[in-house]
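FAQ

Q: What does a record look like?
A: Structure on top, sequence underneath. For example:
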């Protein structure tokens, strides 16, 4: 039996146009495009540039260090104050409240490369990159018991959109006005940052399932893409799928994984605890088995 093409798989789905997502992404990209001539004619002052560069990293760490490694995979536990701070930081990205993000990502790991994978790469690069956001039915939100009554997750969901408005619209406009720029300039710069950030996040589901190497497991399409450092360490995606509980994604001596360094730094000052790292023996066994071409799976502790 011939394998269905990505286009054929999509026609078999019950596609639903998610109008709010379409409108949001359209506005975001329109602002980003309009920002290009704006920068040519008006430029941007150093406070504006600093705010958006710092915002890129703060938003990224809110997703990678909190949503992903701490809450989804239980790889680390933070002091409550750190959770609140990172929960606010995550709104720089507008990747939806944590409950929805965590639930979707757990489904991705449970059903990677299958029809139940929300952003299944087998249905095409662009489906995995962004089409699933605007065309797939909204999946039921399901959280592990340890997160069901989490106070920071509940607080963030309640305040998510006011916080997002503040960090992505109100503050950028205020900074722009303080620098003598037109009020709408700050809005355009935010649109550009959000567009760049969003595509970096989306690329983990697309780029990191198409290009790169699979040194840790061949059971899934996830790949390590060392040349894509913009995801703050998430580019070591094959290792992550092999050992999802490890707080490190880049375990090599020279692997660029800023999220790992952030977590380790917080642990050193007592703001993070219970860091889970896959034992070196297990990593060495997996590396040896992969080099020998065996497919036996190394047991991974439950989350």
């Amino acid at each position: 039996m011939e394998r269905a093409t990505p286009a054929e798989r999509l026609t078999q789905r019950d596609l639903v146009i998610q109008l709010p997502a379409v409108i949001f992404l359209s506005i975001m990209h329109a602002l980003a495009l309009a920002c290009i001539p704006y920068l040519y004619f008006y430029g941007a002052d150093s406070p504006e540039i600093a705010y958006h560069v710092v915002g890129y990293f703060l938003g990224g760490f809110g997703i990678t260090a909190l949503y992903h490694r701490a809450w989804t995979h239980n790889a680390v536990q933070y002091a409550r104050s750190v959770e609140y701070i990172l929960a606010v930081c995550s709104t720089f990205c507008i990747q939806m409240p944590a409950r929805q993000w965590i639930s979707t990502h757990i489904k991705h790991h449970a059903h990677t490369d299958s029809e139940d994978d929300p952003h299944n790469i087998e249905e095409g690069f662009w489906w995995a990159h962004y089409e699933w956001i605007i065309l797939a039915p909204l999946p039921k939100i399901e959280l592990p018991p340890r997160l069901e009554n989490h106070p920071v997750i509940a607080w963030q969901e309640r305040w998510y959109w006011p916080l997002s408005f503040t960090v992505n619209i109100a503050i950028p406009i205020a900074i722009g006005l303080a620098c003598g720029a037109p009020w709408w300039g700050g809005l355009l710069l935010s649109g550009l940052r959000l567009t760049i950030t969003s595509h970096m996040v989306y690329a983990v589901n697309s780029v990191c399932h198409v290009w790169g190497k699979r040194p840790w497991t061949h059971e899934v399409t996830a790949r390590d893409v060392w040349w894509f450092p913009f995801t703050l360490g998430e580019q070591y995606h094959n290792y992550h799928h092999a050992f999802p509980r490890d707080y490190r994604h880049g375990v090599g001596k020279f692997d660029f994984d800023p999220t790992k360094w952030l977590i380790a730094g917080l642990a050193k000052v007592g703001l993070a605890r219970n860091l889970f790292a896959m034992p070196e023996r297990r990593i060495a066994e997996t590396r040896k088995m992969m080099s020998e071409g065996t497919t036996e799976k190394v047991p991974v502790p439950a989350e």
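Q: Is there anything notable about this one?
A: The chain has a mean pLDDT of 92.
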